[in-house]
Structure formats: structure tokens, C-alpha cells
Amino acid sequence: MKRVSFAEFGGPEVLQLVDAAEPHAGPGQVRIAVRAAGVNPVDWRIREGQILKAHPIELPAGVGIDAAGVVDEIGEGVRGIEVGDRVFGEGPNTYAEFAVLSAFARMPEGLTFEEAAGYPSVVETALRIIGEVGVQPGQTLLVSGASGGVGSAVLQIARDRGIAVIGTAGAANQDYLRGLGAEATTYGEGWVQRVRQLGRVDAALDLAGSGVIGELVELTGDPRKVVSIADLDAPKLGVRFSDTAGSVPDALAEAVDLISRGKLHIPVEKTYSLAEAAAAHVDSQAGHTRGRRVILV
Fold first, then answer.
1. Cβ distance 173 to 147 under 8 Å?
2. Where does this chain mainly localize (predicted)?
3. Alpha-carbon gap, residue 94 to 142, rounded angstroms
């Protein structure tokens, strides 16, 4: 089979489309014929060799953690899933023609493979950091870098829980944020004052790693009310850096519920082929994403 791999840490140029042995499902796992794989910032952070406790690897390594596809092999102990089912979930090396998923769920009705591939780790991350930052119904959550996949999920999940949201993003994404139920403003000079004019901030999330941790602490008044998934220096200011995943099966179940109730929709901004994985990483790293980027297999 074909898969995207890298033999050394570095820039997107280290990614290669190679021939590899097919993986097989172990106990509690399913193998899928991949139809689409989600592109996540963690993918290029791992490729660069950044230290992430949740994703230790050995070289050469594959790429990707999210996928959607058709089950073609079922491991021992799996119940409720059959060969031929359309599923989405998480597993290693998903930029490939076949992948093994250790957390999975049937895709909601009406969802395409390219849409489904964008949800698993994004929803898990959104649920985790909303919980870690401790924001409650009736309070206001500020989301810095809100237009990407995680931001899109955070805004919609928070609104479903009765939490007001303020989102920062580029000028081109202001209407997009408002469409997700957020008060929106641009980043850049004067952004702190613009946020203050929108109201009180009870908690804040840094999703972009754009060097705004100090300002988020200023706006909330307490570093314990700020969580980052993008700034490795956040702990220097007393802010939690969140990089250890919670329960992916629980997140998938909640994603299915939210999608089925029409409370969660993350658009796919752009798709790529396996051979275009490097371009997908370049675009992802550049930011300014609206929704998700997905590799089609």
C-alpha cells in the first residue's frame, strides 16, 4: 500500500509517499480502507520533532491520527461494528491507503468521508480544553485563533452548553465566526481593547500560538483561567499547555450526538491527495484556516 512517511525530522520536504506493508487490526481495533484523513497541526509538530508527550514516535514514521473510511478487518473483541461499515476515528499513520483505528464510531447519517475525517481529534481537543479551562454555562469564553478546526468545534460546543463565546480571527473570517454564534473581532494592534468592548472574559483558550498568552492572562485576571494548545512557552506564565488526549471514544460519541442534532458542523476548506501531503502541511502551518483541511485517499 501507499503511505506518507518521513525518515528524519524537518520541514515538509521530508515527507515522502512510499510503499509500506499493510497494517492489521489487533484486539479492540478495526482496519479501514481510508477514504480521507484529517490534517492537524499536531501532524507537522511531530514531523518537526517537537516534544509532545502524547505522541512518542520512532523513525521512520508515518503521519496522521484522524481518518474516515470503510471497515475491512475487525480485531478480536470488537462488538457492534461489521466489515463494510463507514466509520471515523483515531489511529496512527492515517495518511495511507489502509489504517488501523483504536478509537472509532459509525459515521452519522449524511456525513461524507471528507467531512467525517475532520472531526475525531478536533472534537476530543475541544471537549478536553473546555473542561480544563473550567468555563461554566452563563460565563464567557474567549477563543484566540477561533476559525480553525478546534476553534470551530469549541465555539459550537460551548454555545450548545450555554456558554457565550468571543472569537478572534483574521478579517476574512469574521462573518464565519458570527455564523457559529460568536462575538467576533480581529487580532492585531488594539485587539485587547476590542475584546474588552465586547464584554467580560471569564476564561480563554489559545489555539494559534501567536504570542498572546500575557494578554489572555490580563483579560481573565488569572493564569489558571487560560489554556493553550499551541504555545509551548505558556507554562512560563503559569498557563497550562494541554497536549495529553482524553477519551477519544467518549469524544466520538459526543461528536455523533452533536452532528446528529445539527449542533456541530465543521466545513472542509481544502482537500489534498496523498502526494500533496507536504503542501497540506505548509498550508496548515501558515494558519488562517476556516474549518478543516483533509487528505483524500
1. yes
2. cytoplasm
3. 32
**Bridge partners for 63 per DSSP:** none
The C-alpha angle 167, 118, 262, rounded to 5 degrees, equals 70
- The mean per-residue pLDDT over the stretch 187-202 comes to 93
Residue found by looking up cell 459509525 in the block: 106
Domains and CATH numbers, the chain: 2-107+267-296 (3.90.180.10), 123-241 (3.40.50.720)
Q: Distances from the Cα of 18 to the Cαs of 4, 60, 91, 95, 269, in angstroms?
A: 6, 11, 19, 11, 26
pLDDT tens digit sequence for 101-153: 999 999 999 999 999 999 999 999 999 999 999 999 999 999 999 999 999 99
Q: What is the pTM of this model?
A: 0.92
- Cell numbers 498550508 correspond to 283
Q: What's the grid cell of residue 224?
A: 489558571
